[in-house]
Amino acid sequence: MSGARLSPRHANTVAEPVAVEGAGNIVLLGLRIALMGCAVALVGVLLHVAWKIVAA
Prior knowledge:
Layout: H1 2-55
């Protein structure tokens, strides 16, 4: 009986992290894209400031 009770719970615990992991991967992908965008923008601002200093 305990084995019969544990197997559905085990199946549920296996299925849930897969869904969470998939959502986590999407979130991590979004964060990675956002961080890359921020990094590109930061480099652009630094280049702009450096260009202003050099041009002045």
